[in-house]
Amino acid sequence: MVSRRNFFTMLILLMIMIFMFMFSSVLKQVLNEYGTNSYAQTDADEGRLRGDYDALSAKLSDEAKALSGKAILPDDYDEGDADKRVIFLCRGGENEVGKVVNAWCGYMKRPMITYNTLDGLEYISSSALPEVIIVDGENVNWNKEADRLLHLTQNGACVIFARMPQPKEIKNSAVLRELMGIKDVYSEKIAIDGIRLFPGFFIGTEEEYADGPGKEGRQDLKLTLPWYVTGEASKVYMMGIVNDRSRKSQFLPSIVWRHAYGDGKCFCITGDYLTEMSGMGFLTACLGEKDSYDIYPVINAQNLVLANYGGFSDENGDALEAIYDQRQIPLFRDVVGPSVISMTERSKDKISLMVTPQMDYEDDIEPEDNMLVFYLRLLNEGYGEAGLSTKQVSNLSLAQKLGKDRVYWEREAADYVLRSLYLDDATHYEDAKALLPDLRTIVIEEKNAKPVTYVDDEVTCQVATSDCLTHTFSQDIALKSLETALGYSNVVFDMFEVSHPSGDDYADFSRKTSSNLLSFWKPYAGFAKTTLSESDLRIRRFMALDYHDARKGSEITLHVDNFDKEAFFILKLNRDEIDEVEGATITDLGDGFFLLGATQEDVKITVKVRTLYYY
Amino acid sequence: MSMQLLTFLQLILLIALYLGVVVLIPASVFHGKFENHPFYVRYTAYFCIGNFYVMNLVYVLQLFHISSRATLIIGVVVPAALGVAVFHWQDWVKASLVQAGETTHNVIVNTMGFRLFFARIFQNLWQAIVSILKAIGENMVTKWFDWIGTLVIIGIVAWQYGSNIFMTYGYTASDMLVHNAWINAMCNNDIFTNGVYPFGFHCIIYFFHEVFGIKTYVILRLFPFLETMLIHFELLFFLRLISKTESAAYIATGCYVLLNIWGKSAYMRYYSALPQEFGMIFILPCLFFLILFFRARDDENGEKGFKNESTTMLKLFGMNVCMTFAAHFYDTIALGIFCVAFAIAFCRVIFKKGYFGRIMVTGILGLVVAILPMWFAFLCGTQLEGSLRWGLGVMNGTVQEEDADKANLRLNQGKIEVPVIPAMDESTEQILRAGTATASLPAMDAQTQTATATYALGLGNFFGNMMKNVSGYVFISEQSSFGVIVFVMIFIGFILGALALLKREKEQGRMLLAASINLLFFYFLIMSREMGIPVLMDKNRTSVYLGYFSIILLGLVIDYGLNVGMALFEGDTLKKVFPALFAVICFIFLGLFGWVRMPQRVEAFQKNGAIICVTNILRENEPNTFNIISANDELRMTEEYGYHYEVKDLLIENLGLNANNYLSVPSSRVYVFIEKIPGDYDDKPYEGSGSPISETNAMKPLPISMGINIYKGYYRNVVMSKLYYWAKAFQETYENEMSVYYEDDEFICYEIRQNVDRPYDLSFNYGYNN
After folding, report:
1. Nearest residue of A to residue B659 by CA position?
2. Does residue B641 carry a pLDDT above 70?
3. Residues B512/B248, Cβ–Cβ less than 8 Å
4. Cα torsion B322, B323, B328, B331: sign
5. Distance between CA atoms of residues A278 and A479, nearest Å
6. Mean pLDDT, to the nearest integer, of A298-314?
7. Which one of B515, B598, B719, B730 is separated from A197 by 20 to 30 angstroms, measured CA to CA?
8. Backbone angles phi and psi of B439, in degrees to 5
9. pLDDT at site B532
10. Average pLDDT, stretch B329-344?
11. What residue in A sits closest to B609 (Cα-Cα)?
12. Under an 8 A CB cutoff, do A235 and B760 touch?
């Protein structure tokens, strides 16, 4: 028999325990303000940021227009910010390489001055030389320009061959070979077995892009290349590899390298990397190797977008049940959702959940009540924010679809501000904007588009940089390049394939995406994990800012114009170590790359004066 | 951390480890056997046993190619533990084991808690420490004079010979690199890598490198201090053994260390870790134990038995004979000469029954033990090392001794100038560098120099020449005065010896005679070339022994004088203190008149900056991830830890205006060592020696010559000038990848950081590719 005293003691203990366990869950339920989008509440002056961006763009554009395509006069180069000018040498107007260079110049806050010829540039003084001359080697009259470039490099110019001249041209031109540091054109076209990327060029680990265990199906690089053998005064960043191990590494084909000639440097990039926007990181990386240090602005945002996320209505239920033994709502709620959460907990990513309450608006199946609330509660626990997707399988206009979605949305979470939209067809942007007055950023999938830009005065556009389903070697190079250039990636999982399967089931989808995300994005853990709203704000600040840097002895100073609360920069140190930083936070990204988070307009970085342990 | 502090800490560690292994471990086993002897006998006995064991353990393990840290530790610890157990079973081992067993049992059955268990351990340890300190304290009280005397000697030897290692970090003898290489080879169980050679010294260094992980170059840098200290210890203890008075030994040793009368060739070798000087440590202990053998035989009164004390002393005599030969055969020659003098002086004793035969057998056995590893290796097909062949050649007359001396002597305006660094080892350059450029010897007339036989000269000329030789080589005098003074001292030694014998102070008298005869022999040895008799060793080396042995005679003469003089006084303390105080006052006065020698600054073959860089490079880099491009010296120092590339090869690869060949040095870090003021490695100072590198020299053609001659003399300046401009040009091309790692007024080191999978081309047109 239990005495009454003991009975009550046990009862009280049980109640305390139940209270303790339930308390936190109850609090989470009660205090969860899922109905508001915490990422939308910023005190940034978006209008001012846009204004600063416009002013900066105009200034760069004016300077570029004032010089481009005209005769080069020394007087033009004796004034102005010569050390931040970029000359693009290309014959026959702006081409695909030009577009990439143009975009890169915009992000690097430099005017792009385009010339057909460098005639006259050799007469300007060494101190007034532009920061870099980018050359589209396939579109230059080398009979005239080779000597000029050689002369300019001798005097201290930095030349980047965004695209190399034809191998035959190089083989026949001793001047070009001297400029590029090519000892021998071993072959004009030869098949190699892979490519090796050395550390220190891009942010991220070194890589061997060749077939091997665990790399099946990833080789998609163009492996037929001219074989250039480089020698003295050269530093190779990417080289071809062949299976014949008897060949000494110094005689293997150089793909990306630097050659010091006279007082200047010449960077050579073999291949078509600079014909795609993702290749702009090659230019950044080359510039980073030019001097003892380099500072340039970056966005510092890593997005994970779950586009076309269903699971709100019981559509396509029979088909899904045949595959998964579950209908759409429980499939997304009990399988897809937890697995995504599990993955993001490991990768530390934040989710931008771009929901689509319905795919088919012509059936009678409506989205279920409280499902949106369920996901918003989950997201509000720190996992991310919600937005809308535009995908549908019915034939409604986008305006009609969004109208119906809005009804559901207002019924479920009327106060939740929708700032982001996944647009599967960019041409419908205007319709979407009319219906979503709070919209600030859109995500689109468009090949070879600028990674980030303004769509109009109010809305930014963020292009999907990867789907993470596949990660081929060229995608890996693109990832490294873009991360180096912008500190930005925008991974978009298209969940339509889950709610309307046509090939792989979700298990395959999940395995591929999670293994790719957890492996290849690992070196970029130093960058901030963001939702679309967060990255939108960072993009606005990035686009608006301008900067100036200088080095005096062991002190590097950075001044940020149009500074708004925070700005991010990559600091590349080629031979020094950081001693002290004032006005910024710092994160080591490895191989001499550091992420600076400026907290004020002026930043001072002191590098260590090397002292030996024993003296 | 400054290099001075590092050197100090390393030195303390090395001394502690060395004495721990060669003195404390044998002491823990054999202290029962020698407990009734004075400290200096106990110390010398343990020291000899320890060195003998370690030396031969390494020999055996090396010859069987099983030498490693594990086998060496087992080889020392297991026999030591067994020895302790066997020799002290009844004393304390058995009781301790029983007590330990009981304690363990109590802990297991929980009748003793861990707190009490550890408290007991600490209590026992504390008691042991207290009892040791108490014993030392009591000993200090009773033997206060010896304590003070010994500490003073340690202090002045450390001041005289130790200060240099805090100012000069490199090797002060060129052949130390060769010994370093041989020791490195032992790490691969490749003893006698360059041929059969006495490896006793190398065995000891190798042991401490392998077992304790101290880098060989660090040991070789610091070992001269320890080696020299031990040489003086043995001199002091030997004199202490044979002196009747307590202060004579300290005064005589003080004279050896302090007086500014010695020629550089008589002591400069003490600044380097060399096998011959290591072997010198064991010469006097031979005679030390021989005297103890005589004393023990007297006490035993003809008693026979293997466990007799006399047998123990004979065994120790044999061990020391063995070690002199195992270290360097010149030490055995010096010992042999002294033994002959000893045998003459002690002929009445030595030829008695039970003496001569036993001594001879023990000595021969000692030599056999020393020769055995070399003989074994020779039988297995290893040829004699070059210097051994040379040494044997000198002795059998097929090689002229002038060959060695010519390297060191050079005619200069009527004076014979000796590079401050006398001949070192016959194996390489044989030059040891002293800080004060050169020292001059008295000029020898042409007649003397060209003399090949004494018989052609008159007796007077011969003696005059002999005195000049002794004065010039052993002492600083340009005249023959010091030679005459020592000769007079020999004469006095004979007189006093005879007097002592007449007074029936037999041992003292015989020792005086032995020391005098020995010095006389060395007088003749130094003149052996002029006398036309086989030259057993060159004059520079003879001078080291002559100086060292003359102190024994001096000590005995002082001892005799004090013994007679102090008989007039009453009181032990007065007899001890008065002579010592008098000596101290004398030294102070001598110091005022410049007769006290100040510590020498001996320049090294490597710049201090180079050693600082090597030390830092080894600390900063993982093994085998770096390359050092230098003029040969650092090759052996870093052999086990990284790679080395010769400057000569680099410059040869850069020959030709286009330098089209691709020269890669594939390691992630490459360090380039450049001497801005190149060292003078030649035996003949050249015009402009000591001048900095220059563009003019860089423009001169690269001297292509065999071996390391390219790094000698004026050529070195050309090489370093070219290398400097090569580095400058390379840095302009790779400004981010090459930086100055270290720089001082005389030396600069560049660091190149490169991708090991695509190393840079180090051959290019740097403007001086001729």
Report:
1. A232
2. yes
3. no
4. negative
5. 7
6. 92
7. B730
8. -125, 140
9. 76
10. 92
11. A615
12. yes
| Both structure tokens of B288 | 């030390």
Distance CA A162, CA A136 (A): 5
User: Cβ B734–A235 below 8 Å, yes or no?
Assistant: yes
Contact state of A292 with B735 under an 8 Å Cβ cutoff: yes
In the predicted model, what is the mean pLDDT of residues B665-672? 93
Q: Is B543 exposed, middle or buried (CB count within 10 Å of its CB: 0-12, 13-18, 19+)?
A: buried
Phi first, then psi: give them for residue B321, nearest 5 degrees: -60, -45
| Whole-angstrom distance, CA of residue A591 vs CA of residue A572 | 9
Statement: residue B445 has pLDDT above 50: no
pLDDT at position A600, please? Answer: 94
pLDDT over 50 (residue A429): yes
Separation CA B716–CA B700 (nearest Å) = 12
What confidence score (pLDDT) does residue A365 get? 85
For residue B749, being part of any structural domain is answered with: yes
Residues from chain A that touch B761, judged by Cβ atoms under 8 A, are 231-234, 250
DSSP 8-state class, residue B413: T
Domain contains B621: yes
Residue B639 and residue B632: Cα distance in Å, rounded?
11
Q: With contacts defined as CB-CB under 8 Å, which chain A residues touch B615?
A: 614
Q: How confident is the model at residue B395 (pLDDT cuts 50, 70, 90)?
A: low
Chain-chain contact of A291 with B2 (C-beta, under 8 angstroms): no
Contact status of B733 with chain A (Cβ, < 8 Å): yes
Is B739 at the interface with chain A, CB within 8 A? Answer: yes
Residue A350 gets which letter from DSSP? P
Which of these, A223, A228, A227, A209, lies nearest to A266 by C-alpha position?
A228
A532 and A601 Cβ atoms separated by less than 8 Å: no
Q: ∠ CA(B8), CA(B11), CA(B13), 5° rounding?
A: 110
Average of per-residue pLDDT values in chain A: 89
In a domain, B495, yes or no: no
* Domain-located, residue B285: no
Q: Are A466 and A479 in contact (CB under 8 A)?
A: yes
Instruction: Compute the distance between CA of residue A375 and CA of residue A369 in angstroms, rounded to an integer.
Output: 12
Say if residue B770's pLDDT is above 70. yes
Strands A593-598 and A567-573 turn out to be: antiparallel
B657 pLDDT band (50/70/90 cuts)? low
Q: State the Rg of chain B over Cα.
A: 28
The ipTM assigned to this model is 0.83
Per-residue pLDDT reduced to its tens digit, A457-495: 889 999 999 988 889 999 999 999 999 999 999 999 998
Question: For residue B278, which of B315, B218, B328, B244 has the smallest C-alpha distance?
Answer: B328
CB contact under 8 A, A249 and B737: no
- Of A345-349, B372-376, B392-396, the range with the lowest mean pLDDT is B392-396
Q: Which domain holds residue B689?
A: 608-753
pLDDT at B579 over 70: yes
Q: Give the predicted TM-score (pTM) of the model.
A: 0.82
Distance CA(A135)–CA(A142), nearest Å, equals: 11
For B741, list phi and psi in degrees, rounded to 5: -90, -40
Alpha-helical runs (H) found in A155-274: 167-172, 174-180
Backbone angles phi, psi at A546, to 5 degrees: -130, 165
3-class secondary structure, B768: coil
In chain A, whose CA is at the least distance from the CA of B737? A575
What is the tally of structural domains in chain B? 1
State how far the Cα of B674 lies from the Cα of B747, in Å rounded to an integer.
6
Whether the CB-CB separation of B659 and B763 falls below 8 Å is answered with yes
Question: Is residue A154 within 8 Å of residue A263, measured between CB atoms?
Answer: yes
